[in-house]
Design goal:
The protein is an alpha/beta fold. Helix content is about 30%, strand content about 20%. It contains eleven helices and twelve strands. Strand 4 and strand 5 form a beta hairpin. The two termini are about 35 Å apart. The structure holds iron/sulfur cluster (SF4). Iron/sulfur cluster binds next to loops.
């Protein structure tokens, strides 16, 4: 297939909150507000930002687990927004999600073998013997003994449960995996093992990842390119090295200053943004980051910055440039 595997254009999601009886009390949350990016086959794009910035909503919109308010999502050359329910059901085989909380996402009443085999059964991809074989194969692929098929999720550690979530996501041989904070709920000692597994699987099966995390350190480790989100918008996007060494946006610089660095000479001074992240219910005028930005000036309070192209796919939205 020529061209991007996934192309997202001007994606928007608005939620109405409050005022069930009186429309005038209803308020609109712009959770995702004009997000655009493309993802090449075999690439990992990291989507990073603080909690509430819209990154997980973006991941769910792409899989159409929630419906977009506006925008286009082209996956393997087809506009997912225009697909019928039946066509979308078929397309979902090729795009899967790994959730943050492996315990919450696995059915506690099902044995591991049935959890992994369920997608194969739903899509009628194998008979009972074929499903058993494929389940054993997938358990080995994620580094677990096939004997795990007989266990229940509560008998497993957090890392083992996340491996089961990954095995289930791989069952239908997808091309795209949305990994939504896949290691945030795990002990630090286990996180590296699961991240290494994801990188290994990407190489082995040619997977494409949208890797979502609040932790820029982890995102830089996993991704070829990085998109930084703030209050529903992508404020900067570029290659991992560009974001690491030549970040333009003050918010990216804030996130970078918190990334641990082994070499003391390369250590950055920690930049603390002012105040708390604004509520998506109360999005500031002008640049959304201006109430917290250490570099803000008058123009930032009234005019929304447009993305500026710095070359080689590096874009940042900031009036400083
Ligand atoms: Fe800061 Fe202004 Fe740039 Fe926004 S536009 S990030 S407020 S300098």
């Amino acid at each position: 297939m020529a061209g991007p595997l996934l192309e997202v254009q001007q994606l928007e999601k608005q939620f109405a909150v409050g005022g069930a009886w009186l429309a005038r009390h209803r308020r609109i949350i712009r959770a995702v507000d004009g997000v655009s990016f493309a993802l090449e086959p075999g690439e990992t794009l990291g989507l990073v930002g603080e909690s509430g910035c819209g990154k997980s909503t973006t991941g769910r919109l792409i899989l159409r687990l929630i419906e977009p308010s506006a925008g286009h999502i082209r996956f393997e050359g087809r506009d997912l927004v225009a697909l019928s329910a039946r066509e979308l059901w078929a397309a979902r085989q090729r795009m899967q999600i790994v959730f943050q909380d492996p315990f919450g996402s696995l059915n506690p009443r099902m044995r591991v073998g049935s959890i992994i085999a369920e997608p194969l059964q739903i899509y009628a991809q194998a008979d009972a013997a074929g499903r058993r074989r494929r389940t054993a194969e997938l358990l080995e692929v994620v580094g677990l003994n096939p004997g795990f098929a007989e266990r229940y999720p509560h008998e497993l550690s957090g890392g083992q449960r996340q491996r089961i979530g990954i095995a289930a996501a791989l069952a239908l041989q997808p091309s795209l995996i949305v990994a939504d904070e896949p290691v945030s709920a795990l002990d630090v000692s286990i996180q590296a093992q699961v991240l290494n597994l994801l990188m290994d699987l990407r190489r082995r099966f040619g997977l494409t990842y949208l890797f979502i995390s609040h932790d820029l350190h982890v995102v830089l480790h996993m991704s070829d390119r990085v998109a930084v989100m703030y209050l529903g918008e992508i404020v900067e996007i570029g290659s991992r090295d560009t974001i690491h060494r030549e970040a333009k946006h003050p918010y990216t610089q804030v996130l970078l200053s918190a990334v641990p660095v082994a070499d003391p000479a390369a250590r950055r001074e920690r930049i603390a943004p002012k105040g708390e992240v604004a509520s998506p219910l109360d999005v500031p005028e002008g640049c959304r980051f201006h109430p917290r930005c250490p570099m803000a000036f008058d123009r930032c309070r009234v005019e929304r910055p447009a993305p500026r192209d710095f070359g080689a796919g590096h874009l940042a939205s900031c009036h400083l440039y």
